[in-house]
Amino acid sequence: MAAKKGKLDVTEDETIEQAFQKYQLLKQIVDQWQQERGPDWRNVLSLTEKPPYLPVRDLPVKAIIELWKRLNIAAKVEIPDSDLSEIMAQFNKDQNTADLDAEMSTRLHMAIRGVAQLACEMANQKGVTAHKFRQTAPDGANTGMRCPVCGEVSILAVLTSPEGKRVMHCTLCGFEWPVKRVGCLHCGSEDAKQQIYLQNESFPGIEMVVCRLCGQYCKEINARELSVQDYVWEDLRTLPLNYAAELWSKEHVKKLH
Ligand SMILES: [Zn+2]
Ligand SMILES: [Zn+2]
Fold first, then answer.
1. I want to staple 210 with a disulfide (CB 3.0 to 4.6 A). Which of 59, 116, 129, 217 is the partner?
2. What is the predicted pLDDT for the residue at 132?
3. Could you give the CA distance from residue 168 to residue 177 in angstroms, rounded to a whole number?
């Protein structure tokens, strides 16, 4: 099969090194918190019988706030617990952080991720399966892209080493589950010819797979070419590819409606 290839134009971001430093600092705090507080919180978490095993909205709010507070303190931002609880309650209602400043929102997401990762560890220890977990949106979207553990949609696929099997990697909780090797994970099309693989030389080992039928895209990391320590950072670092793929799709994919 000759895959259709193309080139993506990407706007370079000079602040990436700065962003990395910030991310690393927060990540260390999350790691510390998980080591120190993970055992206690794991006793509180329980997985359901069927996926999603522990949806984000069911994560213990107190755990998220506990970690969020630590991240805020590290950033020298002090906010009363009551305010954090209020923001959390609002977030659980609408998943919206538009009212928060960008850094506050980043720290909240890191806190949610930090707690969700505990659930993912539990799921992996229990050996839960993603088997037959297909949640389809009313428009038929997101086949196989919804995380069986936390229920969030991920567009990050990884071709694993050495055989190149395709798994989805949840950028929220870190869970991985197998998906079909070819075709569109959004609309379910199995026609490989409709998938366009776009690359940019600044990001070796990564392809943006755009579907010509639905115009949606996935980010595919080839773990046989690129060794990734931290998929969350890798996804953030390569966000320019998402914007470029979106733009490409708008220009090249004829909307069906
Ligand atoms: Zn997940
Ligand atoms: Zn598609």
1. 217
2. 52
3. 5
Tell me which ligand sits closest to the C-alpha of residue 173. 1
Give the number of the ligand closest to the Cα of residue 56: 1
pLDDT for residue 93: 85
Question: Taking Cα atoms as reference points, which of 236, 180, 243, 178 lies closest to residue 210?
Answer: 243
Q: Which residues contact 177 (CB under 8 A, 6 or more apart)?
A: 130, 133, 144, 147, 148, 167, 168
Whether omega for the bond prior to residue 52 falls within 30 degrees of 0, making it cis, is: yes
Task: Name residues with Cβ closer than 5 Å to ligand 2, which is an ion.
Answer: 184, 186-187, 189, 211, 213-214
Structural domains in the chain, CATH included, are 4-12+134-252 (3.90.1670.10), 16-126 (no CATH)
**For the segment 84-136, what is each residue's pLDDT rounded down to a tens digit?**
999 998 888 887 777 888 899 999 999 999 999 999 999 999 988 766 555 55
Give CA–CA dist 141/131, Å, rounded. Answer: 18
Report which bound ligand comes closest to the CA of 176.
1
Distance 168 CA to ligand 1 centre (A): 10
CA of 185 to the centre of ligand 2 (A): 7
Confidence label for 8 from pLDDT (cuts 50, 70 and 90):
confident
